[in-house]
Design goal:
The chain is mostly helical and 379 residues long. It contains 15 helices and no strands. α2 packs across α9.
Length: 379
C-alpha cells in the first residue's frame, strides 16, 4: 500500500516563501550598494585632492582628443607637436579673454559682492512698504539670536568674499596642504592632460586582457558598458561646455542690453553654471530678477525684459543648441535629473558628483537595460 506523498508547502505558501526570499535578496543587494557608495564617498572625500585633478584632466582629454587629431592630420605633425600647438592656441585664447572680457567680469563680480548689503536693505525696505504684515510676522524670527547671528555671518562673508577665499580653497583642497595643495592640484592638471592627450588609441582597447577571470560573454558586456560610459561622458561634457558658453554669451548680451546691473557677469556665470543642469538657471534667476526689480531705474518692466531674455535663450537652447550639439538625448526625466544631481553630489561629496550626475545616471540606466534584456528575460 503506497502512501501518497504530501507536499511540504502549499502553493500559496511556496509563493509567500518565494516572495520573502526575493525581498530578502533585494534588501541585501540594496545594503551592499549602500555600503559600496558609502565606501566610494569616504574614499573620494579622503583622496579628493588626488582624484579631482585626474578626473578633470581625464574628462578634458576625452573632449579635446579630436582637436589634437585634427591638428595632427591637417598640419602633418606628430602627436606631441599637435598637443603643444593645442596648448599654444589655448594660451592665446585665454590671453584674449584676459585682455577683453575678464577685467569687466571680475570688476562686476567684486562690485556685485559689495552691493549685496545695499540690495538686502532695499529688499527689506520694499517689504516694509508693500507687505508690512509679512515682515511683522517674520521679524520675531529674524530677531532670534541664532538666526540673526547666522544672517550676520553670511552678510559678513559676502562682504569679505576675497578675504574669505583662502578658506574656501583650503576646503576644496582638503587632504593635501590647504591652499597650497589646491594650487598644486590645479597646476598639475595641464601636466596630466598633456600625457593623456599623447595617447591616440582607444582607452578600452586593452581592457579585455585585464579581465581574464570573467567569461567571454561577461567580459564583452563589461567592455561594452565602459565604452558606453566614456561615450556618454564625452558627449555630455563636450556638449554642455559648448552650450553653456553660448548660453552665457547670449544671456550676458541680453541682460547688458536690457540694462541689468552686473548683467555681463550674471549672464556669463548663469550660462557656464548650466554644466550642472538647472543649477545655472536657478541661481541666475534668483539673483537677476530681484536685482532687476530693486535696482535704480528697475521695476516690473525690467523684470519682464529679463524673463523674456531668459525665456528666449532657453528656447534657443532647447530647440536649436541641444538637438544640434548634444545629438541624442539621455532620455532622463527632469525630475530624475534633479534627484540624480543631489544624489551623486552627496554620494561623491560635492561639485564633482553633481557634474558627473547625468553621465553616471545615464550609464546605470544603460547597464540596467542591458542586464534586464540579457539576464532577466522570461523563458
Amino acid at each position: 500500500m503506497s502512501a501518497e506523498t504530501t507536499p511540504l508547502l502549499t502553493p500559496a505558501q511556496r509563493k509567500l516563501v518565494g516572495f520573502a526570499l526575493g525581498f530578502a535578496a533585494f534588501c541585501a543587494i540594496g545594503w551592499l550598494l549602500y555600503i559600496l557608495l558609502a565606501g566610494v564617498a569616504r574614499f573620494s572625500g579622503y583622496f579628493s585632492g588626488v582624484i579631482w585633478p585626474l578626473a578633470v584632466a581625464g574628462i578634458l582629454a576625452l573632449v579635446l582628443r579630436p582637436v589634437v587629431t585634427v591638428f595632427e592630420q591637417r598640419l602633418k605633425v606628430n602627436r606631441p607637436v599637435a598637443v603643444v600647438l593645442l596648448y599654444l592656441v589655448f594660451v592665446l585664447f585665454l590671453t584674449g579673454l584676459l585682455i577683453t572680457f575678464l577685467p569687466a567680469v571680475v570688476t562686476q563680480i567684486i562690485e556685485f559682492v559689495a552691493y549685496l548689503p545695499e540690495l538686502w536693505q532695499k529688499t527689506v525696505g520694499w517689504a516694509e512698504l508693500h507687505y508690512p504684515e509679512w515682515l511683522a510676522a517674520v521679524r520675531p524670527y529674524l530677531e532670534n539670536p541664532t538666526i540673526k547671528s547666522a544672517l550676520e555671518g553670511l552678510t559678513q562673508q559676502a562682504q569679505n568674499f576675497l578675504t574669505h577665499l583662502a578658506p574656501t580653497l583650503k576646503s576644496a583642497g582638503a587632504g593635501i596642504f590647504g591652499l597650497f595643495g589646491f594650487v598644486a592640484s590645479v597646476a598639475v592638471i595641464p601636466i596630466y592632460l598633456f600625457f593623456f592627450l599623447l595617447s591616440n588609441g582607444d582607452p578600452t582597447k586593452d581592457l579585455p586582457e585585464h579581465l581574464p577571470f570573467l567569461k567571454t560573454e561577461h567580459r564583452d558586456d563589461v567592455v561594452f558598458l565602459v565604452r558606453e560610459f566614456l561615450g556618454i561622458l564625452v558627449a555630455f561634457f563636450r556638449g554642455q561646455l559648448l552650450i553653456g558658453l553660448i548660453m552665457g554669451v547670449l544671456l550676458a548680451t541680453g541682460f547688458s542690453v536690457a540694462g541689468l546691473k552686473f548683467g555681463l557677469a550674471i549672464g556669463l556665470l548663469t550660462g557656464l553654471l548650466n554644466i550642472v543642469p538647472y543649477l545655472g538657471s536657478i541661481l541666475g534667476l534668483s539673483v537677476a530678477l530681484p536685482l532687476a526689480f530693486l535696482q535704480p531705474g528697475g521695476g516690473l518692466p525690467l523684470v519682464g525684459i529679463c524673463v523674456a531674455v531668459f525665456t528666449a535663450v532657453q528656447a534657443i537652447e532647447g530647440w536649436l543648441l541641444t538637438p544640434r550639439i548634444m545629438g541624442r538625448q539621455t532620455g532622463l526625466h527632469p525630475v530624475v535629473i534633479i534627484v540624480a544631481i543631489f544624489f551623486w553630489g552627496q554620494a561623491l561629496g560635492g561639485i564633482l558628483g553633481m557634474m558627473l550626475a547625468i553621465p553616471l545616471t545615464a550609464f546605470f540606466v544603460t547597464a540596467w537595460r542591458l542586464v534586464r534584456k540579457k539576464y532577466f528575460v522570461a523563458a
